[in-house]
Sequence to fold (380 residues):
Amino acid sequence: MDILPYSDNHHAFRMKLREFLSSEVTPYVDQWESDHIVPKSIWKKMGQEGFLCTAVSREYGGFGGDFLYSVIVIEEMVKTNHTGLMVQLHSDIVVPYIESFGTEIQKRRYLPGCVTGDIVMAVAMTEPNSGSDLASMTSTAVEEEGQVVINGAKTFISNGINCDLVVLAAKDPSVDDPHKAVSLYLIEADTPGFKKGNRLEKLGMHSQDTAELFFTNCRIPQAQLLGKKGHGFIQLMQKLQQERLVCVIWALAIAKNILSWTEDYCRNNPKFGKPLAASQSVQFSLVEMLTEIRIGTAFVHQLIINHMQRKERVIDTSMAKYWISDMANRVANRCLSMVGNMGMRETCPIVRMWRDIRVFSIFAGTSEIMKSIIAKSKAF
Ligand SMILES: Cc1cc2nc3c(=O)[nH]c(=O)nc-3n(C[C@H](O)[C@H](O)[C@H](O)COP(=O)(O)OP(=O)(O)OC[C@H]3O[C@@H](n4cnc5c(N)ncnc54)[C@H](O)[C@@H]3O)c2cc1C
Fold:
């Protein structure tokens, strides 16, 4: 069924990562969940072992792996049952901005540190009054005496506390067309005028340090512009296919994990003298979920292959983003119901996954936004 062309090297990488995560991550996850953050040291350990930025070329410290290495990292991270160490955001969503749009100087300055885990990255687009409608952002970037002065506030920024470098979207207020006003900038965490705000208390993703970021007369050299001035929107659009595909692979892996745990639970827990799984209604529920996951997997694997062939699949990826996110939430809800009062206990592994999966129909474009992208392409 698996159509992805994994090689022996991919399999060996997966085994090495699995072993690393079982000793360096899984034992600490409960602590990180109650700390509401992961320690910086785990980023460095991941980097030292070669598990960050697998796609970055050798020239900049990586090993130039294909997208299947990213898929492996996402799938194995899911098995640790937490979302705090958001490697996929760093490696497959934010760092690619530097790889694609960075100058040679920017690449040499930042990419090696991203690979080793010395530089943790975040991307800051969302503002208190600007989420889906990014064009309405109000953060400004004004050129002044050879520098750029940034003012504004960002919110819901993943890796917001741990980040060392931020890809920030801000507008030139002198440009009327909002789509031509946005540029991207690289902001180092210790730049005067840049302040990390509150770590947000969330329904799920407890170990993830999602935070507010504030910029007050934050002056950066013009050389920190990432890509061309006024091209921020185009750059964001260019990177959305991979960003959303990463979320799809991640959500699908969580759904598989929840179902696999629930299946075991139903096999091993007797009710009325026989295992739960002996009941036809439980069997039918499990079968329905297995089927949905199987259908989803076929779709996602095809998208991964197309993505690796550099084919544009924006509409299909939007379909997958909303459908897989909704399906994973359906699976999480049904599984939680099937385990009875266990599903209300913090010690039940699927409780955390049920909380964590909720956000997938919100971030990286809500399900409604995905449907409007698809509808527009169909010109109904
Ligand atoms: C845990 C978490 C992590 C995040 N990480 C990051 C990050 O690292 N960096 C970052 O920049 N952002 C991040 N975000 C923000 C995220 O990208 C936004 O939440 C998302 O874009 C939606 O914006 P919003 O929440 O403001 O919702 P809104 O845009 O206010 O939407 C509210 C509701 O209206 C609906 N809606 C909006 N517009 C339309 C429309 N045109 N048609 C139909 N329905 C519509 C939406 O679907 C939604 O249901 C994160 C969010 C969360 C929750």
Observations:
- Strands lie at 121-124, 140-144, 147-157, 165-171, 182-188, 194-199, 211-221, 225-226, 270-271, 274-275.
